[in-house]
Amino acid sequence: xxxxxxxxxxxxxxxxxxxxxxxxxxxxxxxxxxxxxxxxxxxxxxxxxxxxxxxxxxxxxxxxxxxxxxxxxxxxxxxxxxxxxxxxxxxxxxxxxxxxxxxxxxxxxxxxxxxxxxxxxxxxxxxxxxxxxxxxxxxxxxxxxxxxxxxxxxxxxxxxxxxxxxxxxxxxxxxxxxxxxxxxxxxxxxxxxxxxxxxxxxxxxxxx
Length: 208
Known about the structure:
The protein is of the alpha/beta class. The chain has helices at about 15-25, 50-60, 80-85, 100-110, 120-130, 140-145, 150-160, 165-170, 175-190, 195-205; strands at about 5-10, 30, 40-45, 70-75, 90-95. About 50% of the residues lie in helices and about 15% in strands. Helix 5 (about 120-130) runs antiparallel to helix 7 (about 150-160) and helix 8 crosses helix 9 (about 175-190).
C-alpha cells in the first residue's frame, strides 16, 4: 500500500464538515491534511449546487497544486451535476450515498484522475442517448447517433462509480484487457481524452 492520499474538507456548515471528516477518518488509504499542508483531493460538502457553491469549487480548483474535488451534495440533479463537472468537480455524490465505503472510493478515484458520479444519472443519460440526443444547434449528437453497446454501457457505469479496471473485470466476468479495450474504444470513437472525459461527456449529452 502506498502513502495515504492527503485530503482536505470544505463545507459551509461546520456540522457537515465534522461529519465528512469523521466518515473519511476510518479509511487508512486517505489522511486528513494539517493546516498549511497541500491536499491532493478536496471533499466539498454542500446542501445544493448553486452559483455560490460553484464559485467556491472553482476557487478550490485554482489553489496551488490544483487539487481534485469530490462534491457531496444534499440534492444532486442532472443539471447541477453538469455544472459541477464543468466547474472542475472530479467526483459527485449525494450526501445519503457518501458513506464510509463510497466516499473514500470516490476520493481515491479522484486522486487517480477518474470520475465518479451516481449511476442513476448516467443511466438516465444513456437511456436518452439510445434514442439519439441533439446538440445546441439541433444537429444529432455523435454519442446519440452512434449509441453504445450493452457491454460498453455496463463498463461505463462502473467507471462512473469509481471502480478500477480489475474490479470492473471481476464484476462483469471479463478480462482486464477486455475492459481496457472497451474503454479505449469509447474514448477513441468519440474523440475523448480519458475515462473521466468519457463520463463527463456522457453526462452532457442530451442535457443541454
